[in-house]
Every structure is written in C-alpha cells, then in structure tokens.
Write a structure and sequence with these properties.
With about 325 residues, the chain is α/β, with parallel strands linked by helices. About 50% of the residues lie in helices and about 15% in strands. It has one domain: 2-enoyl-CoA Hydratase, Chain A, domain 1. The strands form two sheets. The protein has a six-stranded mixed β-sheet with strand order 1-2-3-5-7-10, sandwiched between helices. Strands 4-6-8-9 form a four-stranded mixed β-sheet, sandwiched between helices. Helix 1 links the parallel strand 2 and strand 3. The protein is globular, with a radius of gyration of 20 Å.
C-alpha cells in the first residue's frame, strides 16, 4: 500500500482530469500520478493541468517539500510528445502551433529546473516504459528511480526528428556528451540497468518496490533537505541550463518537424498506434514497435547498400 494515501492540502486540492494527487503529511510529499488516454503523453490539456499545479506549489512556499512525478497507467510512465498532434500540425503547415506546444513544454521544464530554489526536492518514479519527452521529464528531477522492467530511450531520430525539450541539456549534465550523443543519435531503447550504468538513473529496484524505495529516499533526504537543496542550486552554476538555450533548441525542433516527409509522418503514426495498444493493456506496444522500426531501417539500409555495390560491380 502506498504511503502517499492522503488528499493534498486545500491550497493544492483541485479537481483534475488527467492527474491524481496523493499527499504524505509527515514529510510534505506531493505525488502527481498522470493518466492520459488513449495515449499516455504530454498533451496540451495535461500540460495545462501540470502548469496549474506548479503555480499552486509556487504560490504556497514551504507547503510542498517533496514533489514526485509518477504514472497512473500500468506499465507506462510517459510516451512524451503528442505524436498525433505533431502529425496533424506538420501536415497543416502550422509551425506557430508547433512552437506554442514546444514553449508550453519549456515552461514546465523551467519550473522543474528551478524547483530547488523554491524549496522543493523532486523525484521521478518510473514504473513503466518511457520515451522521448517522457524520458526528458524524468531526467529533469533531482532523483530518478526506475523499476527494473522499465525501458526508455530517445527514438525520434528514427523518423528524422530529435528530442527537443531538454534531452541534450539533461543527458549531458547527468552523463556527459559521449553518452548523450550515443543515446540521442542511435534511437535505441535501453533497460533500467543500462541507464543506471550510464549515469542517467540514480536507483534501480525490483518491480513493485518503487514506492518502498521512494519512501526510503524521502526519509533519507528530509533531515538534510535544506543542505541538499542548496547543493542542488549550486550544481546549476556548475552545469548551467538557461531558458534561452532551451527556447533556441525548441525553435530548431519545430523547424525540423516542418521538414518531415510523408514516410516520417507515417512512422510517427505507426508509433502512436503502438502507444495506444500499450495503454490499452496489450503486452506489446511502443517499445516493441521502435525495435521493429530499428530492424526495418537496418534491413532497408543493407538492401540499399547491396544494390549500390552491385551497380558498381
């Protein structure tokens, strides 16, 4: 049973459609469990609710000491960007709406980046697969806990895009340029253990033990919370991320998205359908579909290479 069983204080207790809030009064822990259907992603509506919650936390300093991001969908943490919306906007040549979506993402990224300055320690509890922007959002937190069966990666390069809402900044800060480059340019999916070995995940626990690990972490950090938050603020001076740099990246992301061709868009639609299947409870979903896309791409390249060499012969 979760130790986060209480309703939040009145200052935070709103009715949300895409989020379920849980509260632990002993350590002032607010857990946000996100549940978006038919695809567990950062839709505009879900992001608006998250922005409202962040505003409420900021408006009540000292009330929330620990913020936890988790999922309300079994086997999925978050699939990140709203691929169906992206396809719609690209086909409509609506770059302004793409930029609007990206800027909403940046505002959420910026709040989490500055959470320590308002006295909030953050943790991502990942109990299922997460892709693209979902992994970006997890890496934003001060602590990242993965259950062992969870898998994650940045697949965007497979359809000629890149993760544009902070992936480079966050992966470089946590693991260095070599690891960040390999992850983002390969499009590969990684296990929880592989992510931990690369320095992107702080703790890997067995399936079903994420909540226990979360409780232990909160109990460990709470007695030294002020010092921990001060140290995390100092870390930002050592590895700074600016709002302007985030905005520059998302502008490039939007411009790149507008150059996607029909094949790229069909692949995005294929992945979106796989995401729906996973949220619907099927054993195979987006991660398995990405692995098939990788295989299809590899075979296509090999066949193309063989034909070119045959022509040369």
């Amino acid at each position: 049973m979760s130790f986060l069983g209480s309703r939040p204080p009145a200052q935070l207790d709103r009715s949300y459609r895409y989020m379920r809030l849980e509260w632990d009064p002993e350590f002032s822990v607010l857990c946000t469990r996100i549940g978006v259907r038919p695809i567990q992603c950062y839709s505009l509506a879900a992001m608006a609710e998250l922005q409202q919650l962040f505003s409420d936390i900021s408006a009540n300093p000292g009330l929330t000491k620990h913020f936890v991001m988790a999922s309300d969908v079994p086997s999925v943490f978050n699939f990140g960007g709203d691929l169906s919306l992206f396809v719609l906007l690209v086909r409509a040549r609506d770059i302004d709406s793409l930029k609007l979506y990206a800027r909403r993402c940046v505002d959420l990224v910026w709040w989490l980046e500055n959470a320590a300055q308002i006295g909030v320690h953050t943790t991502a509890l990942v109990q299922g697969d997460t892709l693209g922007g979902g992994l970006e959002s997890a890496l934003l937190h001060h602590n990242v806990i993965f259950e062992r069966s969870a898998q994650a990666g940045f697949p965007e390069v497979l359809f000629n895009l890149f993760p544009g809402m902070g992936a480079w900044h966050l992966a470089v800060r946590r693991a260095g340029m070599v690891v960040a480059t390999d992850m983002i340019l390969s499009g590969q999916i990684y296990t929880a253990d592989q992510l931990q070995r690369r320095g992107l995940v702080d703790l890997v626990v067995e399936d079903g033990e994420g909540e226990i690990a979360l409780k232990r972490m909160v109990r460990s950090v709470s007695p030294r919370l002020r010092g921990t938050l001060a140290a995390l603020q100092a870390r930002r001076f050592a590895a700074p991320i600016t709002y302007e740099s985030l905005q520059s990246v998302v502008d490039l992301w939007a411009a790149t998205a507008m150059r996607l061709n029909d094949r790229d868009l069909r692949l995005m639609e294929r992945l979106a359908r796989a995401q729906v299947r996973k949220v619907g409870g099927e054993s195979e979903g987006a991660v398995e579909e990405i692995k098939r896309l990788e295989l299809d791409t590899a075979w296509g390249f090999e066949k193309s290479g063989l034909s070119e060499w045959s022509a040369l012969g």
